[in-house]
Amino acid sequence: MANDFFQFKQFRVEQAACAMKVSTDACVLGAVADVAGARRILDIGTGTGLLALMAAQRNPVAYIEAVELEPQAAAQAARNVTASPWPDRVLIHAQSLADFAATQPAPFDHILCNPPFFRQSLRSPDARRTTARHAAEDTLSFEELAGFAAAYLTPNGRLTVLLPPPEMQEFAQAARRAGLYPATRLVLRHRAGSKPLRHITTFSLTSQPVQETELTIRTGHDDGTYSPEFSALLRPFYLAL
Question: Is residue 213 exposed (0-12), middle (13-18) or buried (19+ Cβ within 10 Å)?
């Protein structure tokens, strides 16, 4: 069972009220997304507020907004922000992406999203977990996410998304229809040579050759030691590194 909180070096994420807990792949997304130079950042489906807080730590001048549909998760994210070192730079919106779009926000330099996925898998008996993990017409579709990003990114803005490889292929098709093109792709593996766990892909409004890299979480040893590359990436956040 996941802990009720996750303690990072500079902030603490309480997560008892959130269906989706802090995960390793989400931490990689928060650490690898290129938020340098961004003035306005948006985290869509923030859950605990993890990505918004990681962005606040990495970019000391950015103003960060985050949208969360599930009321209990949004309330917990807001409490996590209040308890963090950056309460004046992070704002949680407890509403759907469609309702947030209706407010006509100013464009964003970077949009982060760990969206619903596992569209074809069995639904969880936990309704909140189902909403968090399964794309559905009444929650957040890939088409809605891509369309919002295309409409609310600055001309040089970026959208960075975390998904399993099959779902990422499907999202990339929706992104292309919306006018977004992949720029970078990080292939995340548990161990060297293992099946890819996730793709972290950054999209932009201009077509360009895709730069692909890989990251292995663990070494090939039985002790489960973090790889040097993973350790270097997460050292600013993980207490154990």
Answer: exposed
